[in-house]
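Let us practice reading a record.
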Amino acid sequence: MELGIAGLRVLVTAGAGGIGLAVARAFVAEGAKVHACDVDVDALRALAKSDPAVTQTRADVADRAQVQRLFDEALRALGGLDVLVNNAGIAGPTGKVEDISPEEWDRTLAINITGQFNCARLAVPHLRQSRNASIVNLSSAAGRFGFPLRTPYAASKWGVIGFTKSLSIELGELGIRVNAILPGVVEGERIQRVIDAKAKALGVSFDQMQDEMLAAVSMKTMVTPEQLADAVLFICSPRGRTISGQALAIDGDLQMLK
């Protein structure tokens, strides 16, 4: 399928690993120009070697000064902006609400939801000038299900849904589409850490915790970062020109989170 996104100018936050890296690579493969940020210096160095076409900036999306520098460098590298992929996020702590520190709560929300605001507010003036403008915000299945022992993460991801829907209404008349992607159980190091932490908190084995998570997935499988990237590309392409304000679940038909 010809997506028609060659030359599209794309900024991906947390683009040096995991879902962000898959998204960045997928855009480049279709002829788009991509700039990525990340807080992981080692990951950025590896990205420079493996994917030299992707320009980069070290930036923490929770830090507004760093986000301003990110946009200055991205706009110089890309020559404008057509797509913002707000991918940056952290898993946050695992534990009972009374055991979670205020600092852990604040940091999770600062990255997962305020970070998206920090980037979107700087992106919109440039997206106004695009003929194919999109913002894609990464939420989670935790943005529509309760997630015991993961209250900071779940709260932030529910916030992403509200942010996305409100922004889609606000920006629709400008031709800027805004959507959220809700991954389910995604293959990779992050979910391994989450499973391990929940298993320890509940006093069960890693394998038992993983089996319980997948038991709630109708298709009994994890989602790959590449599948998420495919969805992002489609909704950001001209073929997705009327898709906006949506919270798109890509989760193998997940029924609940444990």
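A brief commentary: The CA atoms of residues 92 and 153 lie 6 Å apart.
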